[in-house]
Amino acid sequence: MARPEQPRGLILPLPDPLSLIHLVETSPMLKSRIRRAVIREWMARAPEQRRSLQQALAFARDASARHRLPRSRQSPCGVIMQWLKPRTGRG
Asked: Which of 56, 65, 62, 70 lies closest to 24, judged by CA?
């Protein structure tokens, strides 16, 4: 008489790779790295291209599309604008 096949140990599913990426993306170190990268990009522009808040806003919109910030109460564009305001108009 054949015995029914019994499970051998507990089999757990592999974690979803997207959930692991989310954990990495929400780390505080990532926000500071993104901040430094965005500020570096802004300061690398010619002084004529970083004089007004309208230029900073256009850059912040583009940068928020390029860089994925961790979730916040503020919009990503607003966070980037806070980073850029002290550096706007420097020449």
From this structure: 70
Residue 56: CB partners within 8 Å, gap ≥ 6? 42, 50, 81, 84, 85, 88
DSSP codes of every residue in 25-63? HTSHHHHHHHHHHHHHHHHHS-GGGGSSHHHHHHHHHHH
First-residue to last-residue Cα distance in the chain = 88
DSSP annotation of 74 reads S
**What integer is the mean pLDDT of 14-43?**
73
Handedness of CA 53, 50, 87, 81 (dihedral sign): positive
- Distance, in Å, from the CA atom of 76 to the CA atom of 30, rounded to the nearest integer, reads 14
For 59-69, what is each residue's pLDDT tens digit? 999 999 999 88
| For residue 6, pLDDT beyond 90 | no
